[in-house]
Design a protein that fits this description.
Order of helices and strands: HHHHH
Number of strands: 0
Mean pLDDT: 90
Structural class: mainly alpha
Number of helices: 5
Distance between the termini: 34 Å
Shape: globular
Length: about 90
C-alpha cells in the first residue's frame, strides 16, 4: 500500500500537481518516512510556497537520511539550502 501511494505521488509530481503530492503523502503519517518519500514531501512543500515547513521537515529527517540513502541525503541537503535561501 505504501509503495503504491508513493508511486502515485511520484506520478502527480511529474505532472506538477504538488498540492496533490502533499495531500497523498502528508507529513504526519510516519514518525520517520523513507528517504525518497521525505525528499518528495520537502520538494512539494517548496513548490507550494512553504519553505519554512520544508526546512523544518528536512532538519528533522536529514540525520536519519544520511545513514539510509546517501543520494536522497544529498538531495535533502540541497533542498534545505533552497528553503533557507527562500
Amino acid at each position: 500500500m505504501a509503495q503504491s501511494l508513493l508511486l502515485q505521488a511520484r506520478v502527480a509530481a511529474r505532472a506538477g500537481k504538488w498540492p496533490e503530492v502533499l495531500n497523498m503523502l502528508g507529513t504526519a503519517t510516519e514518525p520517520r518516512p523513507d528517504s525518497d518519500r521525505a525528499t518528495l514531501v520537502a520538494e512539494a512543500m517548496l513548490r507550494t510556497a512553504r519553505p519554512r515547513d520544508a526546512e523544518q521537515w528536512l532538519r528533522h529527517l536529514l540525520p536519519h537520511m544520511e545513514r539510509d540513502d546517501p543520494y536522497e541525503w544529498r538531495r535533502g541537503i540541497n533542498m534545505r539550502g533552497v528553503a533557507l535561501f527562500e
